[in-house]
Specification:
Rossmann fold; 7 strands; 250 residues; alpha/beta
Length: 250
C-alpha cells in the first residue's frame, strides 16, 4: 500500500464523497466513455479486470459486458450505489481509496479512466496498480487533455491563463492537475511502466458545456461526432483525452 500522512484517509474519503454529490455525468461525458472503449479496444486483454474509480458506472457497464470477472474499487458511496444499480450483482465492489486497496488478486486488465488528475500522488498509485497486474497484464490510463483545442481557445479568450491552468469545472470536480502528453508519459515512466501504445480520444473543438448543449440538436449530428472521433485518431494531441496502454516494466 501507499504510505500517507496522518489524517489523509479520512480527508480523502470526505473530499471524494463531497465531489460525488456535485459530479453530474453530462451527455458529453457519457458519449466519451463509449469512445474511450473504442479507442482502447485494440489493446484489451481478456481475463480478470479491475476498474479503479467508477463514477456513475457508464464505463463499468461497458466493461461488465466484456469481463465476467470484474472488480471495481471506488471511495465514494454514492458512485458505488449508482453503479451497482446499473450493473447488478455480478460485479464485485470494494469501497476503498486506491492508496489503501490491498488484495492478493492479480488482474489482466486494469483501467484508470479520468482518475489520475484527482489523485494526491498519481505515481504512487500507478506503482501500486503495477503490482496488481497479472503476468502479461495491461494498465489502461486515460486523462483529460490540457492541449485540446477547446482549452487552447479558452487561453486565447483569457478564460484560462495557460493550458494546464485549473478551470472552474476542474476545481469543482476535484482535479488537482491538468495533463499534457509529456507529463502523463513521464509519470508512467516514473512508475516503471512500459508504454506499449499511446494516443488520443475524440478531437475536441468545443468545451464540455457546449457539447452538452448541442448534442442531440441539428448542430451536432452523429456524423459530426464520428468525424471528431476519427480525426482524433490522426491528431492525438488535439483530443479531449489522452491514453496510454502500459505493461509492467523491469
Amino acid at each position: 500500500m501507499v504510505s500517507f500522512a496522518d489524517g489523509f484517509v479520512d480527508q480523502e474519503f470526505e473530499k471524494l464523497n463531497q465531489i460525488a454529490d456535485v459530479y453530474d455525468l453530462s451527455p458529453f461525458d457519457q458519449r466519451m466513455r463509449h469512445y474511450m472503449l473504442r479507442g482502447l479496444r485494440p489493446w484489451l486483454k481478456t481475463g480478470k479486470a479491475l476498474e479503479m474509480g467508477c463514477m456513475h458506472g457508464e464505463f463499468t457497464s461497458l466493461l461488465a459486458g466484456l469481463y465476467p470477472d470484474l472488480t471495481v474499487v471506488e471511495a465514494a458511496s454514492q458512485f458505488i450505489a449508482c453503479t451497482q444499480a446499473r450493473v447488478g450483482p455480478d460485479v464485485k465492489f470494494v469501497q476503498s481509496l486506491f492508496e489503501t486497496y490491498a488484495t492478493t488478486e492479480r488482474y489482466d486488465a486494469i483501467f484508470l479512466l479520468h482518475v489520475l488528475e484527482h489523485l494526491d500522488d498519481p505515481v504512487a498509485v500507478l506503482k501500486q496498480a503495477k503490482q496488481l497486474l497479472a503476468p502479461g497484464g495491461r494498465l489502461f490510463l486515460v486523462v483529460p487533455n490540457g492541449n485540446a483545442p477547446s482549452r487552447q481557445i479558452a487561453v486565447k479568450m483569457g478564460v484560462l491563463s495557460h493550458l494546464t491552468d485549473l478551470s472552474e469545472a476542474d476545481l469543482k470536480h476535484g482535479h488537482r492537475r491538468v495533463y499534457l502528453a509529456d507529463t502523463l508519459e513521464r509519470e508512467a515512466r516514473q512508475a516503471q511502466l512500459q508504454v506499449i501504445a499511446r494516443g488520443g480520444i475524440f478531437f475536441k473543438p468545443l468545451a464540455n458545456f457546449q457539447f452538452d448543449q448541442l448534442i442531440g440538436t441539428p448542430l451536432i449530428s452523429e456524423a459530426f461526432m464520428e468525424g471528431c472521433f476519427a480525426l482524433g485518431m490522426e491528431h492525438p494531441t488535439l483530443c479531449a483525452s489522452l491514453f496510454l496502454v502500459c505493461e509492467a516494466g523491469l
